[in-house]
Amino acid sequence: MSSTVLHAVQAVRHIALKQWPEDFGMTVLVDTAAQRVLRQGDIRVYLFRAGVIGFYDAPPALQARVLARVQADFEPLDTPHGEEVQIGLGERDGVGKDGITLRQLDDERLLLVALRLAQSVALELHEEAVENLMETTLNLLNQVEASGRLPGRRSNHLKFLASTSATRTEILARLAVLDNPDIVWDEPGLELLSRDLSADLELTSRFRALDEKLDAISEGLEVIIEGSRHNRETLLEWIIIVLIALEGLIMLIGPD
User: Fold this and answer.
1) Above 80 in pLDDT, residue 56?
2) Residue 56 — φ and ψ, nearest 5°?
3) Fewer C-beta within 10 Å: the chain N or C terminus?
4) Per-residue pLDDT tens over the stretch 69-82
5) CA–CA distance, 103 with 105 (Å, rounded to integer)
6) Are 88 and 97 in contact (CB under 8 A)?
7) Average pLDDT of 42-61?
């Protein structure tokens, strides 16, 4: 069975598709806030809001041109990364050890494969970010345990907590890993393929693992912030005690 490669590359952190109408001279098949699909003959280019670009049967020159333009207009990653799958024709839609088999190479099925692959690639970027957040949180907690004191400024802790919440929101909003794509509801018979792709790429389990780590990070930071608040309250109490003592001393030694 002959096959064609579909691969997805995380080149930038985000593509603002609403404000960026670039079509590279190709026919626009789909154009939403979340994704743009371009076609030229058998060639497909997929642009996703999460910063992932998918290529199906695209020549190297076109790939290089698209990547260069996207990276020039949006925040590029220091080290782009990606994944690829082999796609071939078969009697039924399915996922196997040698790649993905599609009953027909139509726009709907190719888009579904590109979308699931893009979600996997984007998850990898967030997995790296969450690991860094986890490491920073553990370092903070270890410092508190070792010294009994809270490191750094409370405002920095609040900013870090906000970045954790923003990471979770970004994963939910931009990736929609747990949701079936709209195309599944529009095209009968694709729901099973969607589930197979999600299972093969371990999208749900990877998302759950990220969510659990973000919960642990938030709990750790809340402990630090609560301790910081308690320390501030204790300091204020001591300041009040000292001021009252000073006032009493002044009254005692003041002129008759």
Assistant:
1) yes
2) -125, 120
3) C
4) 999 999 999 888 99
5) 7
6) no
7) 95
Radius of gyration of the chain from its Cα atoms, rounded to whole angstroms: 26
User: How far is residue 125 CA from its own chain's centroid?
Assistant: 6
Output DSSP code: residue 152: S
**Would you state the structure tokens that stand for residue 95, as one six-digit string?**
């996922």
| Distance of alpha carbon 229 from the chain centroid | 31
Q: Tokens for 20?
A: 């960026």
User: Which CATH code fits 3-100?
Assistant: 3.30.310
Indicate the pTM of the whole model: 0.76
Question: Residue ranges per domain, the chain?
Answer: 3-100, 122-243
**Distance between CA 96 and CA 181 in Å, rounded?**
21
Spatial separation of the C-alpha atoms in residues 107 and 118, rounded to whole Å: 16
Per-residue DSSP letter, 173: I
In this prediction, residues 120-149 reach a mean pLDDT of: 77
What residue type is 229 in one-letter code? R
Who has greater pLDDT, 14 or 231?
Answer: 14
Instruction: Name the residue among 5, 47, 4 with its Cα closest to residue 24.
Output: 47
Whether the CB-CB separation of 33 and 158 falls below 8 Å is answered with: no
Q: In what order do the strands lie in the sheet with 43-48?
A: 27-31, 35-40, 43-48, 52-56, 3-12, 76-89, 99-102, 94-96
CA distances from 8 to 116, 148, 218, 231, 242 (A): 10, 47, 31, 49, 65
Mean pLDDT, residues 8-33 taken together: 93
Calculate the CA 23 to chain-centre distance: 25
